[in-house]
């Protein structure tokens, strides 16, 4: 997992090329001109989804992916994303392999994502997004999906 600011993008030049390209996309794209939905950059190898929603008081079923790395970035609003190592999850609750998503129960630590902060979540990182820092509030997020 990486939790950082887009100001430090140069530190990631040697990282997975799709992750670097995704971070550059976050830095260089004006999302205010785009509607919510899926946008392909390199087919199924690199795409992003724009989502608008209201945060929730809690998220008790962290998710993980096997085929994709997630880069989560808040365009507006703020949310807490809880994350933890997949091997520390105590129970698999649901599996949806066709959508590359598995749900779990287990211990997590919360991080605040807002402003220019981003979170890179690898297949070994369980994560529970969409948690309200205080009261539920509107958010707009970009999730970049990078094929492993």
Number of strands: 12
The outline comes out as globular
* Rg, Å, rounded: 15 Å
Classification by helices and strands: mainly beta
Mean pLDDT: 97
Give the uncertain stretches in residue-range form: none
| Secondary-structure element string | EHEEEEEEEEEEE
Largest sheet: 6 strands, antiparallel
Distance between the termini: 14 Å
Beta content comes to: over 45%
User: Within the largest sheet, what's the order of strands?
Assistant: 1-10-5-12-3-2
Number of helices: 1
Tell me roughly what share of residues is in helical segments. under 10%
Report on this structure:
- The chain contains one helix and twelve strands.
- The model has no long low-confidence stretch (mean pLDDT 97).
- By secondary structure, it is mainly β.
- Strands 1-10-5-12-3-2 form a six-stranded antiparallel sheet. A three-stranded antiparallel sheet has the order 4-8-7, with no helix packed on it. A three-stranded antiparallel sheet has the order 9-6-11, with no helix packed on it.
């Amino acid at each position: 997992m990486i939790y950082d600011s887009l100001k430090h993008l140069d530190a990631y030049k040697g990282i997975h090329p799709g992750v670097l390209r995704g971070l550059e996309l976050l830095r260089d794209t004006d999302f205010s001109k785009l509607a919510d939905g899926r946008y392909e950059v390199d087919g199924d190898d690199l795409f992003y989804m724009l989502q608008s929603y209201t945060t929730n008081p809690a998220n008790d079923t962290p998710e993980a992916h096997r085929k994709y790395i997630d880069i989560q970035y808040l365009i507006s609003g703020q949310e807490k994303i809880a994350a933890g190592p997949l091997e520390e999850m105590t129970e698999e609750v649901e599996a949806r392999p066709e959508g590359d998503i598995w749900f779990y129960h287990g211990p997590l630590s919360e991080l605040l994502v807002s402003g220019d902060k981003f979170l890179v979540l690898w297949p070994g990182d369980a994560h529970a997004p969409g948690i309200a820092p205080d009261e539920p509030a509107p958010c707009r997020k970009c999730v970049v999906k990078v094929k492993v």
